[in-house]
Amino acid sequence: MAARVKLNSLLAPKPTDTDSGFPTPQPKQQEFLDSDADIAIYGGSAGSGKTLALLLDFAKPELLENPHYGGVIFRRTSPEITNEGGLWDEAGIWYPTLGATSNQKWLRWTFPTGASVRFAHLQHEKNIYNWQGAQVSRIAYDELTHFSKKMFFYLMTRMRSTHGIKPQLRATCNPDAESWLAELIDWWINPQGYPYPERSGVLRWFIVKSDEVIWADTAQDLRSRYPNSNPKSFTFISAKLTDNPALLEKDPHYLANLEAQDVVERARLLDGNWRVKKSESRLFKAEAITASAHGEWSDPVFAKSYLFGIDPNFGGDDAFSCQVWDISDIPYQLVAEYKQSNASITSSINQCSKLVDKYTPVLVAVETNGGGRTVQERLIEHFPGVRIEAVTTTKNSKIINTDRIAIALEEGLIQFPPDWDGIDELRSFSSYSREAITGHDDSVMAWAVAFAYIEEARQLALINPLLLT
Ligand SMILES: Nc1ncnc2c1ncn2[C@@H]1O[C@H](COP(=O)(O)OP(=O)(O)O)[C@@H](O)[C@H]1O
Ligand SMILES: [Mg+2]
User: Fold this and answer.
1) Given pLDDT bands bounded at 50, 70 and 90, which one contains residue 158?
2) Is the model's pLDDT at 278 over the cut of 80?
3) Which ligand 1 atom is the nearest neighbour of the CA of 54?
4) Which of 138, 259, 280, 383 has the greatest CB tally within 10 Å of its CB?
């Protein structure tokens, strides 16, 4: 204890020319610093404080008090270490406040006790063997997705307990659905690609057997299944930009810059999505979407024909959505939309009824999954003169109907208001999975339901004498 008290006074912030003391970790960073997992990964949005978390972690008092402690933090290439604002610069702001001195040639900081933290690159796989005999007890990878799986696992098995320091591996990463790491942390990520908040920091154990990673909730479980195995504990801690208010204070434009990214980059870097693939091809062409965003929300006009698409979803996250399309002319225009998540049957049917009353559509198409039959029946009761049709979406019909939309968009047959929130869904709609890769696709689904009946509705519009002026 005496040693700790002495060390703490040694580590107390000293005045520097930047006039800043050693930073206080933010709650998520603290969670990372407190983890006693063999391997802890701090992952999340750009700017969420990951790199600094590593620097704080490597300079924890209980490590620095040991003169034999030598930590190594890797980046894939050396410019990434020494680039302006990179690891070396950031360490240069904070480590001197702990009395550390630097050696630029070896990219090393030495603390008053003799403990040290150095930075190194690990560009090629063959470089891993240079570290074979090194007595390194603490290793970190900044931006782990830039390294190979082999680099990660090889060095992990080479870490040794030296001078009473528990060997631990730390890493940071931005979400990358295409990296090997996405698979490794899969348990911590929900089906939509976002980290489960309640799993952040939870320990699990694994062993590697014939290149395969085998997981269990406890080390005992693995030891009983694989006698003589040496399970390692592993955890993933997730953070968002909002977990780093320091950055938003320092650079208020940071958020706006991320928000200006395209929908996939935004989902990855701002929202921290682990399932959005950069390379996954989109069904709807970006230029066609932009070119179609010119319409207006508008009230009914006499002698125009309207087509409704309704995709009912009750309770839950998926929204109940009802769209009104003006199909009297080319381009077809989206003129109204009612969208409600956590919808109740009664209020949604009321809202739809109001719209039917208002627009007098030639046809209403209702998706039958998720309570749609009830919606159809109620609308038929309320509007005996209106054609109310049911659509049951299957994997194949979804392909056909979303293809229909894609073709109509490309041919310039569509217009929607530029502030329609379905535009993001369109931009991120995968041609492969036929789902919005960033989560919701309620608007696209209501549209697909409407356009399942576009030809029939057009016929009806033509023969409806009321509408022939
Ligand atoms: N606890 C903290 N106290 C003060 N500033 C912080 C803290 N955590 C992060 N920052 C600052 O926020 C900015 C972004 O942090 P950084 O670690 O580079 O984020 P990331 O690696 O996640 O992109 C940096 O300027 C860093 O100094
Ligand atoms: Mg960083």
Assistant:
1) confident
2) no
3) 17
4) 138
Say whether domain 10-270 belongs to CATH 3.40.50.720: no
Read off the pLDDT band of 316 (50, 70, 90).
confident
Residue ranges lining ligand 1, Cβ < 6 Å: 23-26, 29, 46-52, 244, 246-247, 250
CB 295 within 8 A of CB 428: no
- Say how many C-beta atoms besides its own lie within 10 A of residue 189's C-beta: 22
User: How far is CA 453 from its chain centroid?
Assistant: 35
Residues 113-117, mean pLDDT to the nearest whole number: 96
CB 124 within 8 A of CB 131: no
Q: Which ligand is nearest to the CA of 47?
A: 1
| Residues found in the chain | 469
CB 335 within 8 A of CB 298: yes
pTM above 0.85, yes or no: no
Contact 376, 368 (CB under 8 A): yes
Residue ranges per domain, the chain?
Answer: 10-270, 286-467
pLDDT at 14 over 50: no
Q: Give the orientation angle of helix 442-451 with respect to helix 454-463, to 10 degrees.
A: 50
CA separation (Å) from 324 to 90, 134, 421?
54, 68, 15
CATH architecture group of domain 286-467 = 2-Layer Sandwich (3.30)
Q: How far does residue 328's CA lie from ligand 2's centre (Å)?
A: 53
Closest residue CA from atom 1 of ligand 1: 25
* DSSP conformation letters of 137-196: SEEEESSGGGS-HHHHHHHHHH---BTTBPPEEEEEE---TTSHHHHHTGGGB-TTS-B-
* Residue 113 token pair: 């006790």
Residue pair 28/236 in contact (Cβ under 8 Å)? The answer is no
For the stretch 171-226, pLDDT in tens is: 999 999 999 999 999 999 998 899 999 999 999 999 999 889 999 999 999 999 99
